[in-house]
Amino acid sequence: MVRKLSLLLAGALMGASAMTLVYGVPGSTANAASSETYRQLAIFGDIFERVRAQYVTPPEEKSLVESAINGMLTSLDPHSSYMNAEAAKDMRVQTKGEFGGLGIEVTMENDLVKVITPIDDTPAAKAGVLAGDYISKIDGEEVRGMTLNDAVDKMRGLVNTPIKLTILREGADKPIELSIKRDIIKVKAVKFRVEKDDIGYMKITSFTEKTFDDLQNAIEQIRKQVPDDKLKGYVLDLRLNPGGLLDQAVSVSDSFLDKGEIVSTRGRDPKDVTRFDARPGDMVDGKPLIVLINGGSASASEIVAGALQDHRRATVLGTQSFGKGSVQTIIPLAENGALRLTTALYYTPSGKSIQGKGITPDIKVEQPLPDELKGRDVSRGESDLKGHIKGVEESDQGSGSSAYVPPEAKDDIQLNYALDLLQGTKTDPAFPPNPERAVLNQQ
Question: How far is CA 191 from CA 200, 202, 238, in A?
Fold first, then answer.
């Protein structure tokens, strides 16, 4: 059976655990624990000892402790958790945007790893790996029985270390053996192209340390390809983007704003408010901008969409976003583990929280599902998560929507609607937006 959801819904599935990251230690400290708290901790210690000594098979003590810690944190909300050394390392790799590997985008199909595309100028591309290839063995070990994450972990590794792939290719009469040496792979956080010969299209896949630089490069390349007098505007695609680093969301928003608040975060203490403001300068010189969102747009994506919408700098098109309006602080712990703890909620420039509500598009455009996905639940939203923090703007309607984007642009109704608006073949009262009607927090 073809597991097509693995790639198409990757962002949406990640959205359930998407992080807005702020490194450091929270500013406020808790009051001293009461005697009742210490009594409960003594009960926990007693239970731990009884399990360790009397359980039918000897338990792994480290696993018991980690499970207990995670149980405490996940009871708070779906985004707080404990990361052991390995999980913390993976998180740092994801946010840095580069790692030692081969340079291929993959999914799982028929219990094999299928290559979606090799990334240009990477070890995989240079070795002759092609889109559509199936990887059946990694260093002689059968892929069948592995999860996609297991296979990806095996293909990543130290730079300059070799790996052997066994590839099944349509038209080849026997498996192909390739020996490849790993190298540093820099994942592009922004993909771009020119649409209709006069529109810049930029898709932000995640908010890593490289996102702002990649966006800046995308804008520069588009402007080289299309003369300024012919460039009708830009589409900023945030669909299936699960979020990432807060500072990168601020920088991306600032790229299109000249002034005013971008986002504010508010913690447990009413005085614990941090505000991020835009600096002078619009990288696209005020060109029309349409932002695409759907149920897979979470966290940092919603910060950008909310800021540009409130300032009336962009028209937001698509369906209701995921609705993750919380900030997670990453607190380093001993032995390279880390605590991911929800320490604040963020608010758009109008002073609204999107927690459990999401960003409502200015123009709602549904994306129909293909026949093979009809009947499946492809909707994603914070309000559906068990134990989520109830948002002040949250209603019975909840947050989120369908998190599907067609693989082919010709089938992408939301994108083509945006292109038609920019080219003037479609009109809507919400486009272009009027900056004089910006909805900003006056407090």
Answer: 11, 6, 11
Contact of 222 with 194, CB cutoff 8 Å: yes
Active site includes 310? yes
Across all residues in the chain, what is the average pLDDT? Answer: 89
Task: Give the active site residue among 299, 326, 353, 399.
Answer: 299
The 10s digit of each residue's pLDDT in 307-330 is 999 999 999 999 999 999 999 999
363-364 and 338-347 strand pairing: unpaired
**194-199 long-range contacts, Cβ below 8 Å, gap at least 24?**
194/222, 194/225, 194/226, 195/235, 195/409, 195/415, 195/419, 196/419, 196/423, 197/226, 197/230, 198/226, 198/230, 198/231, 198/232, 198/423, 199/231, 199/232, 199/233, 199/234, 199/235, 199/419, 199/422, 199/423
Does a cis peptide bond (omega within 30 degrees of 0) precede residue 432? yes
pLDDT tens across 48-94, in order?
Answer: 999 999 999 999 999 999 999 999 999 999 999 999 888 888 888 77
- Across residues 202-214, what is the average pLDDT? 94
The active-site residue, picked from 324, 353, 362, 402, is: 324
pLDDT at 148 over 60: yes
CA distance 22 to 340: 10
Q: Is 401 a catalytic residue?
A: no
Residue 329 phi, psi dihedral angles, 5° rounding: -95, 130
Instruction: Please pick, among 310, 352, 379, 399, the residue that the annotation labels catalytic.
Output: 310
Query: Averaged over 275-303, what is the pLDDT?
Result: 96
Q: Is 402 a catalytic residue?
A: no
